[in-house]
Structures are given as C-alpha cells and as structure tokens.
Amino acid sequence: MGKLIAKPSLREQVETSDRLMGIAHKYRFRYAELGRERISRFWEGGQRPRKIVISPALGLREFGANPVSGDLPGDAFTVTCREGMTLDSVGEAALFHALHNLGVRRLECHGRGADRTEARDSTLRAMDSFPVWGQIKKIARECGLGLGFKQGKKTVGVHSYYYYFHDDYFGEKWAVINEDNAHSIRKPAGGIVDSVPDALIIECSDARVMGKQIFEGIDIALVSNWGNVLSEVALDAIEALVKEGLPAVVILGHNRCDAIYAAIEGSTEERFEPLMRMLEANLAGSEMNSRSLAAVRNINSCVDMLSGDKKAKGAGSHRIRRVARMMEGRGTIAFSLYADLSSGIIMSFPVEPNWWKD
Predict the structure, then answer these.
(1) Quick one: CA torsion of 113, 119, 125, 128, rounded to 10 degrees?
(2) pLDDT per residue of the chain (358 residues) written in tens, 0 to 9
(3) 175 pairs with which residues across the strands?
(4) Residue 24 lies inside a defined structural domain of this protein
(5) What residues make up the domain containing 113?
(6) Is 64 within a domain?
(7) Residues with Cβ < 8 Å from 85, sequence gap 6 or more?
C-alpha cells in the first residue's frame, strides 16, 4: 500500500507555480553573463553542441549527480532515457538528429548499469550492461558512423561511461571510465534519495535550453526530449513522481526549435515519424504562419492534456488520460514556460500577441 499524501490546497498550488515562475524569470540575468557574441550565435546560427549526454530522469537523483554540471548553454544536447537505460522512439529520434543533422561526435552515457563488481575490469564488458549502447550503435550505423573510443572523422567518440556497482569493500558508487582515468562518486548517505523534487521539468533536448540552470537553487527532476513532448519516458517520470507527491510538472518550450521546424516542414525522415505524429496532434488547428506560435501551441497542448482540458488523441492517448486523472487526484499542477533564446527571458502565458518572433 502506497503512502498517504495530502492533496495540496488551491492556495498551495498557486504558491508552487508562483515560486517556480519567479525563479525561472530571474534566469535572464545569468543568461546575459554568457555575453552578446555567444547569445547572438545561438540566435543566428542555431545550436552547435559539442557532446550528446544520455541519462535517466530519476536514477541519477540517488547520487545527487548532474551529468551537465559545469556545462554552459549550447554545450550539451541532452536525451533522457528510461530508468532501465533504453531510449524510447522520441529519444531515438533525438539521437539521430544530433548525430545526423547536428554532426555531434562526442557522446556520454550516465546511468545505473549492472550491479556487479566485475564490470570494473573491462570497459567493453561494462558497456554491455547498458542496453542503450545497442541502440546507439544501430543509429550510428544508420548515420554512416562507427562507434569507438577514439574520436575521428567517422567515429562517435565515447568520451566517458558511467555505471553503478556495489560490493562489500567499496559500497555503492558511480564509476566513471574513459580512455585516461577512472574514478567514482560515492552514493550520499540518506541525501536526496527519498526526497520528492519541487517540480518535474520536461524540456527540449536542444543544447541551448538548460533546465538545471533555469531552476537553479531548487530540487528538480528533468526529462529532456526533442520537442518537449509527452513521450513514454516523460510519462514514466510523471507517473513515478506523482505517486510520491510531486507538486508540479512544467513543460518548458523555446523558440528556434528544430523539432517544431521539422513538423511544420512535414519531415518524412523515418526516424522522426513517431515524434512528428505527436507534434502534429499537438499543433492541430494552429496557424503555422509563425514557428514560435507553433512552439507555444505545442507546450500548451501538453499542459492541456495533463490538466484534462484537452482530450489526448493518437498513440499513447489512453496513458496520457490516465496520468491526467492521477495528477488531478493527487493535486499535481501543470503549466508551461517559454524560453526566448535571444534574451534568456522565460515567459509564462498569456503574453502580448506582438511579442512573437521567429
């Protein structure tokens, strides 16, 4: 039997949303510190990430680990996988986009691997404990790439590999293996293992969007997928955390989104098909004369479905409706925020109609 969790009052829900929005709205000051040249490059030249980071939404919380700690906006194209270290179809689309379209050749995979000490003895044997590597290899081959430890013109460089092990001598740790060194991160005693985050943020994989920095100073869980949609991985995280008393789900969108562009242009890339169906359903009825308006329609559609104000349709619709009922029963709120990459301003809605810019 699950633990009893009191449903928050309307006042508490409003206070939660106000607090989260207030923190997000301060991000523009930190964003400005990046400098005009870097911000202009984001706006005019698009994203140019130097690495792909794949990790689960909840598994890293046990160790208080942040896979993009020290990175700046624009550095890491992030993809959230299942807790069992596999990608859903939206995650596969994101990985394909990063390898094939963005040309990223450095890859990191962070997560809980096999609970066995012998995994330390061989990097290749340790890699086998992450099922996601099979998906990575397959998609890399589709892009005409190999997969290896040395970077090269046609090789995806596996920069570092993180796995979990436990034994009587070392205890529970995250071990890090790369070409040059190996070290480990000890699991904190107690720590945040049993804590419920202040919010679950569903953000885009786009390297220019970093939820950890936008919500700096508060405890959040993060799901990154291409197009910030209600993917299988996103719904997994929502279900798991709502059961524990999650206060809020935030759908974080942004302008200049490659996934939105692909949907508007009617991409026929086979790898993108499941994602394109989701986006097309979210954008149905939207005027496509502004790509930013379409991006806003996308995040608001996700919120409407989670709030029960819009009936989910298509693949996964039954599950979305079930999650929406669960959120209503537990008092978990959902709202959308929108990041303007030209300024770092995080907006909530409604906004003035003359704001929109592509």
Answers:
(1) -10
(2) 445 677 888 888 889 999 999 999 999 999 999 888 888 888 788 899 999 999 998 877 766 778 888 889 999 999 999 988 899 999 999 999 999 999 998 888 887 655 444 444 444 445 556 788 889 889 988 988 876 644 344 555 555 555 555 555 555 555 555 544 444 555 555 444 457 899 999 999 999 999 999 999 899 999 999 999 999 999 999 999 999 999 999 999 999 999 999 999 999 999 999 999 999 999 987 665 677 789 999 999 999 999 988 888 777 899 999 999 999 999 999 999 999 999 999 998 644 344 444 5
(3) 163, 184
(4) yes
(5) 10-355
(6) yes
(7) 56, 109, 111, 112, 113, 130, 131, 132
CATH of the domain at 166: 3.40.1050.10
- The domain tally of the chain equals 1
Do residues 207 and 77 lie in contact, with contact meaning Cβ atoms separated by under 8 Å?
A: yes
Quick one: tokens of 315?
């693949």
Q: Are 250 and 201 in contact (CB under 8 A)?
A: yes
* pTM summary value: 0.87
Residue 184 counted as domain residue: yes
In a domain, 1, yes or no: no
Distance, in Å, from the CA atom of 329 to the CA atom of 341, rounded to the nearest integer, reads: 36
The single residue listed with the structure tokens 């619709």 is 317
